Structures are given as structure tokens and as C-alpha cells.
Amino acid sequence: MRIIIAISIIIFTSCTEPKSRVEKENVTTLDTSVTNIAQADTFKTDSIKTDTIKRQIEYDHFLKLDEYRVYYKTIVQPVSFSTISPVYSQPDTSSQVIDSLKFNTSLVPILDTYVDEWIGIQYGNQNAYIRSSDVALYSFNSQSKKMKYFIRGSIIYKYDLTQNIFIDTFQIEGFAPDYAQQINSLKWKNVDLLLLLESHGNCCGCSDVGIYLVDANGKLDIMFKTYQSNSDLEGEEYSTNVSLPQDPQFDNIIYSEYDYGELFDMNNEPILDKNGARKMGVIKDIKKHYKWDGFKVVEQK
Fold it and tell me: Can you name the residues that pair with 253 across neighbouring β-strands?
């Protein structure tokens, strides 16, 4: 028994002896190679990340510039919106301040000069820059010329020009217009402003939304909301439209709704044609007539 134990100890000891100098050098060389490879991989990964971030920044800038080009085509009376809006020589707050504009100063934006959160404007004989947060791209005067309305994002600001104060705001949740048009409301009783605001989905299956906004009897409100939608499913279509007369005292406001798509029976089962394919057709096609009574729209029966 003692002999067996001794042999076992000798074998175990010989297996755990320290490595020779050559073995140590080989291990050190291998460790160094692995470290170099890891460092190279890390450098390569960091370079890829840097390139990816750079491309993303460039792409984001392209999207913002492209979005601004869309807005530029529909801008209406752009003005400075802050109490004091600095005008810079470059799109950088550390650059020279050329001027400081008062609230509601008219601006002349320049296409293709949008840089991140900056808008290029014409200032005298030179190009200059103003922060987009200091600008309202849409502004409208009321029918009475006593009020002015500024649109920024989803919020409409109402400003009293006689008292030089903001007197009201109106927010349309989840809606930011990329098109705005003032509608002649001269013959609309008690109406000081009538606007058509539109937001375009710009994608397959997205909806174009229209908002008819009215300021009547001193109160901002939505008169109508319209939709234009083309489904991802081929052939499906849904739309609502409004036709406003110049004089609603004599002519009706016409609201129409049209829906075209798959047809279903009373049990909500799809209707099939003779070939077994789902049948398409007009689901709804209606028109409603309204009058403006000086306070609200009233449906005509």
C-alpha cells in the first residue's frame, strides 16, 4: 500500500512541476499575440462604430434638410418668435452676433441653409443664421387685423396686436402641420380666422390628415377633421373631404366620406367572387350638408 501511494505522489508531482524557460517564452509570445489581435479587433470595432455614427449623423442631417425643404415650400410669413432673437454670422452661438431681432420680425429664410437646429436667413446683403427655436415658420393675421396667430409644432398661439400680449393657445395632440393655408372668412359670421392645416403621412399605409381650424367668437376650435388613407392592401382606400363655400349663409358646407375595400356579409364573413377571391367594392359613399350659424356648424336634414 505504501509503495502505491509513493508512486502516485511522484507522478502527481512530476505533472505539476514549473514550466521550463522555453515553455515560458512560448506562453509569453502567445499571450502577446493574443493581446495584439484583441487590440487590433478593438481598434477595428471602434473604427466601424465611428464610421457608423458619422454616417448616422450625416443621414440625420440629410433627413432634417429634406424635411426643411418640404417646410420651405409651404412657409407662410415666417417671423422671429422669441422676445429677443440673436442673428449670428455662422450656425454657432460662439460666432459673431450680427443683430438681435425683436418678437414678430419678418424673416426671409434661404433654402438649403438648414444646419441641425439653425435656419439660414437673408440679412441685408449677407446670409446669416438664427436658431430654429427662435422662429415661427407660419403666421397669419386675423380678419379684423387685431390678432395674429403663430404656429409652432402642434401649438397655435393667439396674440393680441392691440395689447401686445398672448391671449390664448390651442394644441392639436399628435398633429404637426407641414402645410397651412388661410381661408377667406370675410363672409363667415363671427369668424376672425379660418385655417386649413395639413400633415402628410408620406408612407404606404399612412394617412394624410387635414384640420379645419376656426377662431369664432373669440374661441379657437376644430371645425372639421379630414383623412386621406391608402391601405397596404391593394385597392383599399378611405377618405373624407370638406368643401367650404365663400358665403355659408347661402351655400352649404359639404362633408363627404368614401370607403372602398373588402366586402363582408352580415356574419362578418368575407364575400367571395365566382373565382373564390375576396370581393372588393364601395363600403361607404355619403355626403352631408351643413350650415354655419355664426357659432357652430349645423347639419341640414
Answer: 290
Q: Shortest CA distance to 130 belongs to which of 103, 83, 90, 74?
A: 90
**Structural domain of 250:** 170-299
pTM of the model: 0.73
pLDDT digits 0-9 by tens, 52-63: 665 655 545 555
Residue 219 lies in a domain: yes
Residues with Cβ within 8 Å of 85's Cβ and at least 6 positions away in sequence, in order, are 100, 101, 102, 103, 105, 130, 131, 134, 135
- Specify if 107 maps to a domain: no
d(C-alpha 69, C-alpha 60), whole Å: 14
Note whether residue 250 is domain-resident.
yes
What DSSP line would sit under 8-44, residue for residue?
HHHHHHHHTSPPPHHHHHHHHHHHHHHHHHHHHHHHH
pLDDT digits 0-9 by tens, 191-218 = 999 999 998 876 656 788 999 999 999 9
Task: Give a yes or no: residue 131 inside a domain.
Answer: no
Integer angstrom CA distances of residue 155 from 16, 22, 115, 169, 191: 78, 77, 24, 7, 20
Counted domains in the chain: 1
Q: Whose grid coordinates read 402645410?
A: 179
Pairing of strands 138-141, 135-136: unpaired
Residue type, 213: L
Return the closest-CA partner of residue 183 out of 173, 192, 194.
194
> Tens of pLDDT along 89-100?
999 999 999 999
